[in-house]
Amino acid sequence: MSSERTVPDSPRLTRTQHGSLIAAVILCRVFALHSCPIYDDAFITFRYARNLAQGLGLVYNPGAEWEPVLGTTTPLYALLLAGVARLGFDLAVASIGLNVLFDSITAWLVPRLFGFRRVPSTFALFCLAALPQIVRISVGGMESPLFALCGVGAALALSSQRAVLASVLAGAACLVRPEGVLLAAILFASRMRSPRELVRFTLPVVAIGIAAVIALSLVYGSPIPQSVLAKSTMHGQDVLAETLARWKTILSQSFAPSWAFVLVLPLVV
Predict the structure, then answer these.
(1) What is the rounded CA–CA span in Å between residue 246 and residue 100?
(2) How far is the C-alpha of 193 from the C-alpha of 191, rounded, in Å?
(3) How far apart are the C-alpha atoms of 72 and 70, rounded to whole Å?
């Protein structure tokens, strides 16, 4: 008789439990609609999308002598909203509907990152459903739910040995938010020990990046959004101190917006 002990498998989410958690995400978004207005910044992207849908170009002030100016930080989301506007939908309402859809798909994907293990999957989906900061931005008309979906999808695809799909999603994330470059860099580093998979991941995302840079440069003169350029030149007397303070703010908002979130970092890692 063998003396080895068999370690039981961790309990897995059932389809019913997973569906209930996805429903919880949707319900939290519905409840939040009654207390959280759309962000002011969202209307900048709405205006770009509406003008494009009307054939006036992806600009804020059609016909102005200083146009075109890339004043939105999320060109891919603006293009998506332009398609929605072309179909006749109200952009404020459509953006919320799309974001709830994106969060629902993310909730469908997240347990796959944990092999459907019940405890981490449930905890992660509870966080997605009910953390105030996530709920607030999801119903605020911004692009963050699409960015999160691209990020989770890219990580899941790469863990499933689908490097090309991961690369396309990472490239899309870069066009949704500038921070997508960090996601692509992390995924790139995670495959350094597998040269073949590294090449399969790198080529598509580089091609997407080059195409985007060329297109944005030809139209706007620069692939960098105007708001990013403006903030980078708003220096006082001590440029180094302001730069360090800005990075401190970025890092704290990204990884520890409140001390309670520090407890969640191991799950994120």
Answers:
(1) 31
(2) 5
(3) 6
- For the stretch 32-54, pLDDT in tens is 988 888 888 889 899 989 998 98
| pTM given for the model | 0.83
> Do 89 and 10 touch, CB atoms closer than 8 A?
no
State both tokens at 32: 């939040």
* pLDDT, position 1: 44
* Alpha helices (runs of H) in the chain, residue ranges in sequence order: 15-32, 42-53, 75-86, 91-113, 118-130, 132-138, 144-159, 163-176, 180-190, 195-220, 226-232, 239-255, 265-268
Tokens linked to 38: 């759309």
Q: What is the largest CA-CA distance in the chain?
A: 85
Beta-carbon contacts of residue 125 (< 8 Å; ≥ 6 apart): 21, 22, 24, 25, 107, 110, 111
The list of the chain residues with pLDDT below 50 reads 1-7
Minimal CA–CA distance to 89: which of 28, 46, 33, 55? 46
Spell 239-269 as b/e; 16+ CB within 10 A means b: eeeeeeeeeeeeeeeeeeeeeeeeeeeeeee
- For the chain, what is the radius of gyration of the CA atoms? 21
pLDDT, tens digit, 9 for 90 and up, residues 149-186: 999 999 999 988 898 999 999 999 999 988 888 889 98
